[in-house]
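About this split. The held-out portion is used to measure sequence recovery: a designer receives only the structure tokens and must propose an amino acid at every position. Recovery is the fraction of positions where the proposal matches the reference. Here is one held-out target exactly as it appears in the evaluation file.
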């Protein structure tokens, strides 16, 4: 597989993760625990696949510079900065939240999940936005 297809694959993985995260949250609000569990495990698996693909791409191809106009570059950099910082922070949050759920530590899982959910969703959605701005602007 050529590295040139990986940015599109990565965007698709991020979008899939966002849908799975939203599905999981809606399911648990409706007390559909099995659907919630399946959706969140799917989001975790897809996000893990994204991370592997992202690292492979950047190892093989390096970085792509944003080529849009100056005012849009400011918007792009603001989104990229928040996305990058939160992408680093979300990894231990997701792993800890998932661990607490799988070990049935629900009293500790729920408060952390309330933070993990919006941050993970933001990272997934802004990953797609960054892709779009880089490759389709």
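Reference sequence for scoring:
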């Amino acid at each position: 597989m050529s590295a040139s297809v990986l940015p599109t694959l990565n965007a698709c993985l991020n979008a899939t993760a966002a849908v799975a995260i939203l599905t999981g949250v809606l399911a648990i609000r409706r007390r559909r625990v099995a659907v919630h569990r399946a959706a969140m495990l799917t989001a975790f698996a897809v996000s893990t696949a994204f991370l592997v693909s992202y690292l492979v791409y950047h190892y093989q191809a390096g970085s792509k510079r944003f080529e849009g106009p100056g005012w849009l570059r400011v918007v792009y950099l603001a989104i990229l900065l928040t996305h990058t910082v939160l992408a680093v922070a979300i990894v231990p949050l997701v792993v800890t939240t998932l661990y607490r759920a799988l070990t049935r530590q629900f009293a500790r899982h729920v408060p952390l999940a309330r933070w993990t959910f919006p941050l993970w969703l933001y990272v997934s959605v802004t990953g797609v936005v960054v892709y779009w701005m880089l490759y389709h602007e």
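Annotator remark: The chain has a mean pLDDT of 96.
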